[in-house]
Design goal:
With 405 residues, this protein is α/β, with parallel strands linked by helices. The chain has 11 helices and 19 strands. The strands form 4 sheets. Strands 1, 2, 3, 4, 5 and 9 form a 6-stranded mixed β-sheet that branches. Strands 10, 11, 12, 13, 14 and 15 form a 6-stranded mixed β-sheet that branches. The chain has a 4-stranded antiparallel β-sheet with strand order 16-17-19-18, with helices on one face. Strand 1 and strand 2 form a beta hairpin.
Length: 405
């Protein structure tokens, strides 16, 4: 059996509580103090709170329904005429039905139950069960009661899911409408005096004349029965499932908004990635185009950027004869740029010769560029010229051997 922490709340405000650990080997020692101290023993254990029976009405309600959910809806209105408070201010917990089809019901003010739970949770406790203390007393046999007599309260269990708690002075009024039991097993708190029972009860043959005095009031309770009782007040809106559901519902809208935001951000990132991919493909195409124009002798282009870098490195290291590609290109560029209206259309470099296809205003401009290059010591010849409208398209071969033409 999993260990349980059984805690009996004090009936007095800010009073000490009593608790003990109950495991397979039986109940442990009773301890007394603040709830914060009890919380230190709660780790890994099922927490059961015993609450004052004087604040809880235990009754039975005959209903023509066997479905628990339907009974939970019907019970408040079936009891409405017997209750002083409005049903909206009360919490109803259902037990099981008896042989006559009557539902066992516990009724407690919502404000009172909220206060108990708030006190427990403020101390660091998360109870799995809240049980009226009459139902934690040992279950009596048929036609018998179990009673705990304290200085300010008498707590009585009259059946599996039946019982009451009241002040000793009110005992006669409370039991007047109840059937007289054949026996009462009496337990007496260490600091209390025996209660004077009404004559009708005191004369019953099975009523104990002298109650059994206890070392601690928690000794009067059946810890195992308290932890397994079917009449747990934490039902309906107070159940663990409902509390988790409420917490999840509070986060439903923020979660939906967060999910929508993630979708929008993901879509925008995907769109941006696609745009960058298209731009990269376009740039690769442009790089390959420039490479093929610059090095037309290369038939297979695998990685234009890497291949161009390799060839430029080779040119810089002077692996080709003459002034090299960069030197020839720099001098040719300066002469062509100085000739107004001339534009380079393409370049190629092969075997130390720079071939330039350019567009010039007329043949004189083309010849002027040739002479300018020769003045710089570059062997230059015009390998072709073609008139296109009012302009001239020509080819210059710069560098290498051979005379001018």
């Amino acid at each position: 059996m999993a260990e349980q922490l059984l805690i009996r709340l004090s009936r007095a405000a800010h009073g000490d509580s009593h608790w003990r650990v109950v495991g397979a080997s039986g109940p442990g020692a009773v301890q007394q103090g603040r709830l914060e101290e009890a919380a230190a023993a709660a780790s890994g254990r099922r927490v059961v709170l015993l609450v004052p029976g004087s604040d809880v009405l235990l009754t039975r309600v005959p209903l023509p329904v066997r479905n628990r959910a339907r009974a939970a809806v019907a019970v408040p209105w079936a009891l409405e005429d017997r209750l002083v408070a409005d049903v909206e201010d009360l919490h109803f917990a259902l037990g099981s039905t008896d042989a006559e089809g009557r539902w066992a019901v516990a009724v407690v003010a919502r404000a009172r139950l909220d206060a108990w739970l708030e006190e427990a949770r403020a101390a660091g406790l998360d109870p799995q069960a809240v049980v009226p203390d009459p139902l934690a007393l040992p279950t009596p046999p048929a036609d018998a009661w179990t009673a705990l007599e304290e200085s300010d309260c008498v707590t009585v269990r009259t059946g599996a899911a039946d019982g009451f708690a009241c002040e000793p002075d009110l005992l006669a009024d409370v039991v007047a409408a109840r059937a007289v039991p054949e026996a009462i097993a009496r337990r007496l708190a260490a600091d209390a005096v025996p209660v004077v029972w009404p004559a009708a009860l005191a004369e019953a043959s099975g009523v104990e004349t002298l109650p059994q005095r206890l070392g601690d009031t928690l000794d009067a309770f059946d810890a195992t029965a308290a932890g397994t009782t079917a009449l747990n007040l934490l039902q309906g809106p107070y159940s663990r499932r409902e509390r988790v559901g409420r917490a999840l519902r509070r986060w439903r809208l923020p979660a939906a908004l967060a999910a929508a935001l993630v979708l929008v951000v993901t879509f925008q990132a995907g769109l941006r990635y696609a745009q960058l991919g298209r731009r990269e493909a376009r740039l690769r195409g442009e790089i390959e185009h420039v490479f093929r124009q610059s090095f037309p002798e290369v038939q297979r282009v695998v990685n234009a950027t890497a291949q161009m870098r390799t060839r430029l490195d080779a040119l810089r290291k002077g692996k080709q004869s003459g002034p090299g590609f960069s030197g020839t290109l720099a001098q040719a560029g300066a002469v062509i740029a100085a000739t107004e209206g001339s534009r380079v259309q393409s370049l190629s470099w092969q075997n130390g010769v720079l071939e330039v296809k350019l567009d010039a205003g007329n043949l004189q401009d083309l010849d002027r560029i040739k002479r300018g290059l020769e003045d710089r010591g570059l062997n230059t010849r015009i390998s072709g010229a073609e008139r296109k409208g009012k302009r001239v398209s020509g080819r210059l071969r710069i560098g290498g051997g051979g005379g001018s033409g």
